[in-house]
Write a structure and sequence with these properties.
Helices cover 31% and strands 26% of the residues. By secondary structure, the chain is an alpha/beta fold. The protein folds into 2 domains: 2-19 and 234-425, Alpha-beta prism (UDP-n-acetylglucosamine1-carboxyvinyl-transferase, Chain); 22-231, Enolpyruvate transferase domain (UDP-n-acetylglucosamine1-carboxyvinyl-transferase, Chain), CATH 3.65.10.10. The strands form 7 sheets. A 4-stranded mixed beta sheet has the order 24-25-1-26. A hairpin with a 2-residue loop joins strand 9 and strand 10 (144-148). Helix 10 (310-317) packs parallel to helix 12 (373-385). The relative contact order is 0.16. Bound molecules: uridine-diphosphate-2(N-acetylglucosaminyl) butyric acid (EPU). Residues 23, 26, 94, 121-127, 161, 163, 166-169, 194, 307-308, 330-331, 373-374, 401 line the site of uridine-diphosphate-2(N-acetylglucosaminyl) butyric acid. Uridine-diphosphate-2(N-acetylglucosaminyl) butyric acid binds at residues 23, 26, 94, 121-127, 161, 163, 166-169, 194, 307-308, 330-331, 373-374, 401.
Amino acid sequence: MDSFIVEGSTRLRGKIRINGSKNAALPIMAGALLANGPSVIEDVPNLSDIQHQMNLLTELGAVVQRQSDGSMKIEVKDESNSHARYDLVRKMRASICVLGPLLAKRGEARVSLPGGCAIGDRPIDIHQRGLEKLGAKFRLEGGDIIVTAQRLRGADIFLGGNFGSTVLGTANVMSAATLAEGTTTIESAACEPEVVDLAEYLNAMGARISGHGTPRITVEGVADLKGCRHRVICDRIEAGTFMVAAAISNGEIELENVRLRDLMATVDKLRAIGVIVDASNGGCTVARSQRLHATTITTQPHPGFPTDLQAQFMALLAIADGNSIITEKIFPDRFLHVAELARMGAKVHREGATVIIEGTDQLVGAPVMASDLRASAALVLAGLAAEGSTTVNRVYHIDRGYERIEERLNKLGARIQRVDQRELEN
Ligand code: EPU
């Protein structure tokens, strides 16, 4: 297991290109199961979660290849196995997004229930409700859900839940509805850019989806879909993480391949606390030259402030002037980074789904434990600003969603070393 040793008090400067989006690529790769013929997906990042998805699609009968130009070709050759096994699903909960495509194309899917994870319960009751409305039958066997349907039929479906809509639930129902008979209306659909990107990919395959990007999506079913070429959108969460890296290190970074319109809530908060964000052609420049101010953040479904940047902003606000408040409304238990940031001198007090952050002048390096993807990113960011060195253990979490983050940050002037944890113990 690898760890990072992060030397603190470094100022990041330079230019970086933001990669394609993990959370857009995963359901798009699953969507390729719907097609007759090959799809070529461009700008799929090189991450362990993507590798897990490639392995899963291979088990499900697809040939998945990285091409010499970096794109990914996916072609289904054999539809006989529709079982997403526990061994694969437990490594990556997003594998649930094969459910809708398998059901629609093959009439059946057997997917291991993902179970809980470090950021809280991850139920799929809303996915189930939506697919049942289309005519699917669910049963549970040995920890797997088995979903079958003779013929899916379009329906009016409400997909709202206690925490807003569901991103992958919307992806599943929208994907399944593409091959259903008649028209489906999804009300309270997720509006995330990744859902929009999936809809655009499906439309390029011949689907008839409209309203994506709004809470009401309409899908007119078609008889079949053909493979196509599609470029994945840039990763707004990776972009937001590098924005925080610029701010927390008192540096200046130019980000290429960023769509600021997908990051309005994030940029609004950065500006409110004193970070300079200037749009440039196809990207932006992020810089800080003053002490940061405190603020209040509540995570919300898109276009609100994203839960996937909550931990990184907590690290940043730990060194702002005054008291900040962060409330997590999507995953109310997504706070494993709080105790770790406290080990680095952050003054953080949790009360249920809210954390009060009393700004401090200086964080100090410490050994800390990564617990989930975004929490790990927050610890690396805190390490950049801290005095001394920070050891972040179990960085496999960060490799799930950030491609070689230490190399990318080092190019900007960070000093991060990847070491085998056993070396540290000897
Ligand atoms: N929820 C239910 N029932 C369901 C589905 C969801 O109650 O059937 C609840 C969840 O427990 C949560 C809320 O609804 O409280 C929203 O969850 P959602 O389903 O939208 O999450 P997801 O689709 O499983 C995706 C991203 C997450 C991101 C969330 C929220 C992917 C692969 N994952 O998950 O990304 O946090 O949307 O934006 O797209 C990450 O990248 O670090 C990550 C966790």
